[in-house]
Amino acid sequence: MNDTVNIKELNDRIQQESSFVDLISLEMGKVIVGQKHLVESLLIGLLADGHILLEGVPGLAKTLAIKTLSDTIDAKFSRIQFTPDLLPADLLGTMVYSIKNEDFNVKKGPIFANFVLADEINRSPAKVQSALLEAMQEKQVTIGSTTFPLEQPFLVLATQNPIEQEGTYPLPEAQVDRFMLKVVIDYPKKEEEQFIIRENLSKSFPKANCILTPADISRARSVVKEVYMDEKIERYILDIVFATRFPEDYNLSQFSGMIKYGGSPRASINLALASKAYAFIKRRGYVIPEDVRAVCHDVLRHRIGLSYEAEAENITSVDIITEILNTVEVP
């Protein structure tokens, strides 16, 4: 009985604390037409303290969506255009010699911001990609012999273009795993695109208003962790992740030779965190199986390694996740 009362109290508090979610969606809706899934994914990453990899053909408002989200929060935004000649120092910063002081001074790079847009991240070589790893995982950067903590909140939102492979450097599995979500964006509907044309041809382009501070985001993140998750939901998450590792144990033997490796414990952690953030966005104080299913594809699609057999039969990680969700018993 006490648990029920506590959950009710928690639910009421989270409904109150999550009121800003509608405001952010409203402000982003002024600039971004449609793309509801993209906006929700950005909010999940923001609230669950997870980095996001956006994949889609050019011109689908990936960069605009990230810039608009940063406009709604009074936070520092920086954009880094990744190119083959980019150096780690261009990203992190470097030591600059001052003739006046006869000493080296630290010049911080664009990574020192709350929102970092890594545009076309797969266009830069491995040494730049690995320089980003420490920042993403440890929330700190080492320049020379000094380590500097990064701004809070800190969020890397990376984009990559899937259609062009010339002059690109595929992200290694270790780095891809650092992204909480990999979101694939599709074309807008016909009526949405008509509205986009009108907006871009009008005299003034709409702009989102600033409605939150970094302190508001930090408080919301601590509340997201308080969202109640039942033991049955935890087991459901584990069943889904373990089905990517040992498909034959879950009546999915057709995938036994298709999967090189499944989701790591980081996949389980991120699936739980993203589910809590999704419940928070839906203004609920507890996680239900639908929350897990809603975020599952974005959390797992980049964490399943496919064998040559799978590629030969045109089976994708999305097909495998869909089949797992259809097979694993829902609590």
Account of the 3D structure:
The protein is α/β, with parallel strands linked by helices and about 325 residues long. The model has no long low-confidence stretch (mean pLDDT about 85). It has helices spanning about 1-15, 20-30, 35-50, 60-70, 90, 125-140, 175, 190-200, 215-225, 230-245, 265-280, 290-300, 310, 315-325, and strands at about 50-55, 75-80, 95-100, 105-110, 115-120, 140-145, 145-150, 155-160, 180-185, 260, 305. Strand 6 and strand 7 (about 145-150) form a beta hairpin.
Descriptive keywords:
two-stranded antiparallel sheet; Rossmann fold; 48% helix; alpha/beta; 2 domains; five-stranded parallel beta sheet; Helicase, Ruva Protein, domain 3; 331 residues
What's a quick, concise take on this entry?
The protein is α/β, with parallel strands linked by helices and 331 residues long. Helix content is 48%, strand content 16%. The strands form four sheets. A five-stranded parallel β-sheet has the order 2-5-8-1-9.
